[in-house]
Amino acid sequence: MTSTVATPHPRGLATLFFTEMWERFSYYGMRAILVLAMVAAVDAEHPGLGLSREMASAAYGLYTTAVYLASLPGGWIADRLIGMRNAVFVGGCIIATGHFTMAFPSTPTFFIGLTLIALGTGLLKPNISAMVGELYPEGGARRDAGFSIFYMGINVGAFAGKLLCGYLGEHYGWHIGFGAAGIFMIAGLVQYRLNSRHLGTIGLLPASTGDAQRDAHARRRGAFAVAAAIALIALVMIAALGGYLPIDPIRVSKQTAVVIVATAALYFGYVLIFGGLDRSERQRVGVIVVLFIGAAVFFSGFEQAGSSLNLFALDHTDRDIGGWQLPASWLQAVNPLFIIILSPFFAALWVNLARRNLTPSVPLKFALGLIQMSLGFLVMFFAARLAASGDKVAPAWLMLTYLFHTTGELCLSPVGLAAVTKLAPRRYVGQMMGTWFMAASLGHIIAGLLAGHLASTDDIAGLPDRYWLVFVTTSGAGLLMLLIARPLQRLMGNIQ
């Protein structure tokens, strides 16, 4: 009789787990107070930028969008120029520099720091996830379990970052909170360097064609392109901060949304018409288009947490606990806490349904995610009615909203990218993965524009109607996805 022992996870997983945990600590810790710092008056106890809520929300949406879009060149730089290992370290250094730049209380350093964090995150985020996959060349359930552990690190970091940076920012000054985010990013980089030996040779070198001369030539061209892009970004920043290039975040957000939609439409149209696809492949790409739209709608609502819902917590939520004021940013920590608590239950649910051959299809999971997210805005409709009457509402309203948003996220987000990789024609997999990031980017841009209306203080009486409109729109998208889930599944064939 033989006994089997579960194969342990690679030691490199711990290295990447803690690197990502501290990076997410810094990223979400800073995001928790970002809009609050932008709308705070310049003569307040903790001086802010004094931006209007519409401007601040649009700037927030642009920033989060830039993070997603930067992931595309970030992966390319690692593949072609410096390797994933170096990309993660360099990206982390840029992120830490950005946080420390924001720790200086001035408008120029604020926006320079934001730019650096977006660029650094785009370099680090896709490559550290790719290295987790490289730890499990055999694939299978063990690889899935490794990603589940890694995903838990993301949420532990997000939860702790929102609590600590939120508290420091709201009680001691926004620049203190931003500086704390940088300190913990440094902690993540130190442990990454000290424990990188556990990664073996993973990510050490960029991809190679096998032709040294051709590779060297390609790297020289790539390095020149990166240098030119950095110079262009620097020039734009100098011109904007010097007043030579006025930038209206709201107008730029609208233009960016148009560009993303046009780019996606042209790309999908080209692939469908000129991509040399057979009938089955065209059908599956059509499903990806529908999922693209669904993901954009979902993230446009889900990403209200850091903007309009954060400002609702600031303005309309009773945060007094025995004479102590609960930081408004702390309520955002509910989402990662719920994910930590609920993820094992959802994982068990999908496994049990699979055993009974009742696994929901990808379109059905998208529909469930959209509907649950919309229910969060139905909760906010009732909360806004109380706020419009002049009363401050209990934190439980926002917590219930975040609960619906979290369960919606657990239905939709984990399956989205995996579904795209399965549905995409083999020769277009990498490009189709990019469309998922574009969908998230579009959702973030729309979220920023939408938040400006939801967080406006000009018409408090109209706030319930605005939340009701969001509920009707997002629930309508969810119900439509529910109605077409079965036809979409037929187009997907045997892909689950």
UniProtKB/TrEMBL annotation:
Pfam families in the cross-refs: PTR2
Q: Which InterPro entries match?
A: Dipep/tripep_permease, MFS_dom, MFS_trans_sf, MFS_Transporters, POT_fam, PTR2_symporter_CS
Where is this gene product found? Cell membrane; Membrane
Instruction: Give the SUPFAM superfamilies listed for this entry.
Output: MFS general substrate transporter
Which GO-annotated molecular functions does the record name? peptide transmembrane transporter activity
Q: Where is the Major facilitator superfamily (MFS) profile domain?
A: 15-490
**A GO CC annotation given for this chain:** plasma membrane
- Indicate how the chain sits in the lipid bilayer: Multi-pass membrane protein
Can you tell me where the transmembrane regions are? 60-78, 87-104, 110-128, 149-169, 175-194, 223-245, 257-277, 284-302, 333-354, 366-388, 400-424, 436-455, 467-485
Superkingdom of origin: Bacteria
Q: Which GO terms describe its biological process?
A: oligopeptide transport
List keywords of the entry alphabetically: Cell membrane, Membrane, Peptide transport, Protein transport, Transmembrane, Transmembrane helix, Transport
By sequence similarity, the record places it as follows:
Belongs to the major facilitator superfamily. Proton-dependent oligopeptide transporter (POT/PTR) (TC 2.A.17) family.
Its protein name is Proton-dependent oligopeptide transporter, POT family
Query: What organism is recorded for this protein?
Result: Hydrocarboniphaga daqingensis
